[in-house]
Amino acid sequence: MNAAQHKPGSLERIQISAMRLRLQSLLRLLACAAAIAAVGANPLLAQGSQPEAMAALRAAVASEMQASRTDKSNWMYRDEDDTPEHNSTYNAIETPQGTLRRLIALDGRPLGPGADLDEMTRIRLFVHDSAAQAHARRNSQHDDAQASELLQMLPDAFLWRISSENAETITLDFKPNPAFDPPDTQSRVLGAMGGQLVIARNGNRIRTLRGRLLKEIVFGLALFGKLNAGGTFDVERRVVGDGRWQITETHVHIGGRALFFKSIGTQEDEVKTDWRPSTDPTLAAAAHTLGVE
């Protein structure tokens, strides 16, 4: 379905509901923004950002760039995803072909025999469906591309300064740059955020990215909808083993109203625990590990 087929306001709803995935992609691709910030003198950037803050950001991003090039590790973990509809618990396994998840509990209760059979059938069909796998890869690539576009705007969209330091971390504050002119809906939302980025001194790795929507965002003179001020996101990264950093928590709480008073936005808390290295080379092997024959 393309944008022309959506009802008024639904495009914004889809963009915001996908924000969690883009935030994860944003952390993976933060290196792109730092390259822009580090090269040349950007007038917008130079006028408001603290040089010491930009130096800390560049050092962290250089470490993330190196890790992105060299860390090809895959992991298995427990994934708990809490939304207004359900609290879903999965066992997840990463492979070079992608990630496979098996739903094991819903709203705190193990799946019944019928639901469990349906879940195993879903996994079997996906493992043998090359078209579905290609679709999943395209979706991931699309999210990465959009995150990359947003990253290109970071040096201009925000002003950066060091807010605190201790023996373990450096915390950078960012706020909207009043000189930034957002070209589209996504960048309007991005440009209205303020927050913090926390850097771990040991290895110069990005530990936390959190922000808040500082003002209401109105679409189409409020005819198509709005996003409420105060919406938040928080992405947490930790060492999960062997010095490897992964996203361990994602919290997104952004709300508003669309045409005819329909709710838009996303309310989601995702926590990943019980990290272990994955050695499964294929999705079929991961399905076997998950108990799906």
Report on the structure:
This protein is an alpha+beta fold. The protein has one domain (3-289). 38% of the residues lie in helices and 37% in strands. It contains nine helices and 13 strands. Strands 1, 2, 3, 4, 5, 6, 7, 8, 9, 10, 11, 12 and 13 form a 13-stranded antiparallel β-sheet that branches. The longest helix has 28 residues, at 130-157. The protein is globular and about 60 Å long. Mean pLDDT is 79; it is low at 1-21 and 27-41.
DSSP, total strands: 13
Domain count: 1
**Major sheet characteristics:** 13 strands, antiparallel
How much helicity do the residues have?
Answer: 25-40%
Counting DSSP H or I runs of 4 or more residues, the number of helices is 9
Strand percentage: 35-45%
Which regions have little confidence, pLDDT < 50, spanning 5+ residues?
A: 1-21, 27-41
Ends: how far apart? 34 Å
Class from helix and strand fractions: alpha+beta
What's the overall geometry?
Answer: globular
Rg measurement, Å: 20 Å
Break the fold down into its secondary structure elements and pairings.
Blueprint: H1 10-17, H2 19-28, H3 30-38, H4 43-48, H5 51-70, E1 75-82, E2 87-95, E3 98-106, E4 109-110, H6 113-127, H7 130-157, E5 158-165, E6 169-176, H8 185-191, E7 193-200, E8 205-213, E9 217-219, E10 225-227, E11 232-241, E12 244-258, E13 263-277, H9 283-289
Antiparallel strand pairs: 1-2, 1-13, 2-3, 3-4, 5-6, 6-7, 7-8, 8-11, 9-10, 10-12, 11-12, 12-13
Helix pairs in contact: 2-7, 3-5, 3-7
